[in-house]
Specification:
CATH architecture: Alpha-Beta Complex
Number of helices: 6
Mean pLDDT: 94
CATH class: Alpha Beta
């Protein structure tokens, strides 16, 4: 995400604290009062600066994640609205990857339907709807969002600070793409989270703002308000069907989706 407005000193200082914590895997405490974002718009301004600071190590953004798109996640995080974060190039992994658990503070996984765009969604098309974004989708992918509880106490930070730090985002694991024309109605897609072979939760495409396309439309409208846009080739994680599961070294996770296939990740 790019911000057309130059960053203020407070935004830069807040972003530097967040970026330093990310690099060092040091749990992030509440920001100093003078730097803490006072609303979600402030949070996104800081997030944009965090992306700039982390780009030398993580690469440019290649997509976005959307958090809090299902009732189960809104209730879990006590945040009643969706939140967006960026996906940098080096945080994208292919199914079957084994990752080092020591590279996270407290790693977790979420069960998600991802989309890859075949067409741009430019601000001139806003306001977008679930119907109007559908033709922009090239394919769907079974996906795992890797999240990291990299906070001293995330419950005390509030949505604006979590947004500033990409809302727990720590990577994505993508399965094989399925062309949009070959996918059954997403409302009927059932997703299951399996941890070490045992089911830990399940949900459906209908749990994601009523339809994953609604989540994509929300993101396209959000970016339009920021003066930017979703572009062809970008990946969008539409939000978890299942409550986050926190893991440790030695654990393996599989997400299974009816009609979409499955995807796996393990932590050593």
């Amino acid at each position: 995400m790019t911000d057309r407005h130059p960053a203020s000193d407070a935004v830069r200082d807040a972003a530097q604290i967040i970026a330093a914590a990310r690099r060092s895997l040091a749990p992030l405490p509440p920001l100093p009062q003078a730097l803490a974002p006072q609303g979600v718009d402030d949070g996104y301004r800081i997030q944009s600066e965090v992306h700039r600071l982390l780009a030398p190590g993580l690469g440019p953004l290649v997509g976005y994640k959307i958090g809090c798109t299902s009732d189960v996640m809104q209730e879990y995080l006590a945040i009643p609205h969706p939140c967006a974060g960026g996906i940098p190039a080096r945080a994208v992994h292919q199914g079957g990857v084994v990752l080092d658990a020591a590279g996270f503070v407290r790693v977790g996984v979420e069960c998600e339907i991802a989309v890859r765009l075949g067409q741009d969604l430019v601000p001139a098309g806003a306001p977008f709807t679930g119907d109007s974004v559908a033709d922009s989708i090239e394919c769907y992918l079974p996906a795992i969002e890797i999240v990291d509880d990299r906070y001293v106490h995330w419950e005390t930070l509030g949505a604006p600070t979590l947004i500033a730090d990409d809302f727990f985002a720590a990577g994505v694991v993508l399965g094989r793409p399925v062309p949009r024309s070959a996918v059954p109605d997403l409302l009927q897609v059932q997703g299951r989270t399996l941890i070490n072979g045992r089911e830990a939760g399940r949900g459906s495409g209908a749990d994601v703002l009523g339809h994953p396309h609604h989540a994509l439309a929300w993101l396209a409208n959000h970016l339009a308000r920021q003066g930017t846009a979703l572009r062809a080739g970008e990946i969008v994680m539409t939000g978890s069907l299942v409550k986050t599961v926190w893991l440790q070294a030695g654990d393996a996770a599989t997400m299974e989706f009816s009609g979409l296939g499955s995807v796996q990740v393990a932590f050593a």
